[in-house]
Amino acid sequence: MTIQIVGDCLAANTARMKTKAARLVGGAFPLVETGGTYVFRIETSLHPNVIVDGVDSELERKVINEVSKLVNVLLCRKEGVSSEFELRLAVPDAFTEKEQVAIGSAMSDAIVRYFHFEDLAAAVIGARPQAVPQFTHQQSPQMVEAPPWWKLW
Questions:
Q1: Domain residue limits, the chain
Q2: What b/e readout covers 5-43, taking b as 16+ CB neighbours within 10 angstroms?
Q3: Which of 18, 23, 46, 134 is most buried by its number of CB atoms within 10 A?
């Protein structure tokens, strides 16, 4: 299985860089320049919304979930992509560099999550472990005052 990310826009470059980083962290899946088993096309368009074009699948759902956290997504079905191994994402030209980078990053996150590399997702996506709250003796929710009879022992 190989992955190919096609496109020369900023979103495509970001997705390629983050996916390569996941590959370098875990070496789990090869990213190729041509002839990938899974092909992700990221391009710019004149449409004001992000368009996702693919076949109804878990891969498409993961991409839509990640990208829709940032912007509204339109789904394209008619005469579009007809393979479950290919997905097209059209990013508006009007988006700023920051927005395009965020879309590319979300696409990469979806790719990493789709292939079930959750440990890689934490490394690449930047998930941080939750901070453990520090309690003082008086604030600790687990502390219960000893019953009066305890002191007799």
A1: 3-125
A2: bbbebbbbbbbbebbeebbebeeebebeeeebebbbbbe
A3: 18
